């Protein structure tokens, strides 16, 4: 799609900001592509947005990218679930790589002619150690309040689904645990007047109530969209049985700007690096909110990355195309390769 010679280091907490169509969703799509390659369904054939032929890099002038070669190396140990540094290279072919020093390599090769998928070859040199556990710990969330309001069966107690439809069952699994108590404490910090959360089984279906000061028990079906989005995100973050990486798009949706900074602080507090006492947690989020920019810049500028687009001309001049570029915050450097603290302040002043 929009990646050519793209490099991004991924810390335990990363906030991606930038204008529309700058590549934020494309980056999440690319991670989903990798996960589909490793689990066997095939990222090119099961792309969530667009047909297989539409996943190729588009050009304004010159020869289109004729082939798509994917090389995947994923983390097997010491900690499943981590997203390592990412690099996307394109020459005559596209190579997508999540590097590591050892472990299985799964290679899927596809040759493409416009509108026709001619060949799809799967090569798994070590099928016994394919790192499925790693990518199964990547959880991309586009939470749906309508889905989270529904009752569900107790059997749906795995990790929180992408849309949150099994929220009641996950809360039921966490009932009575220290993780649920911590979740409620964080929820109360973001949504004022929350007193308790009560998972329950009603007619062999999972549901829950939220106890609110001065209002009493409020059934899940009556909770606001914003409250449910915050609750769903915190549930995934606190789930003791399913650590890993959370990919969250537009985290500000449904959250009051005055509470968004508090939500970010509580998320950061739950981040846990590999090898620690707590289960591994990593969060990568996208946002258009100046609150996210301000809070990330104040607490950890290295965790704030601006994505933007630029017109790229190949050295030989044969190919011209628009590409995604990642710009970290730096005090100085080659113009156009970084975002200065002064530019951040201008961004915040313009958005105020």
Give structural notes.
- The longest helix has 16 residues.
- The strands form four sheets. This protein has a six-stranded mixed sheet, sandwiched between helices. A three-stranded antiparallel sheet has the order 1-4-5, with no helix packed on it.
- The protein is globular and about 65 Å long.
- It is of the alpha/beta class.
- The two termini are 33 Å apart.
- It is built from nine helices and 15 strands.
- Helix 5 runs antiparallel to helix 7 and helix 8 packs antiparallel against helix 9.
Count the E strands.
Answer: 15
Strand order of the largest sheet: 8-12-13-2-14-15
What overall form do the CA principal axes indicate? globular
- The number of distinct helices, counting runs of at least 4 residues, comes to 9
- Element order: H for helix, E for strand: EEHEEEEEHEHHHEEEHEHEHEEH
Largest sheet: 6 strands, mixed
Strand pairing plus helix content: what structural class? alpha/beta
Kindly report the average pLDDT value: 81
- Alpha-carbon Rg, integer: 22 Å
Distance N to C terminus: 33 Å
Binned, the helix content reads 25-40%
Concise structural overview:
With 352 residues, the protein is of the alpha/beta class. It is 27% helix and 28% strand. The model is unreliable at 89-130 (pLDDT under 50).
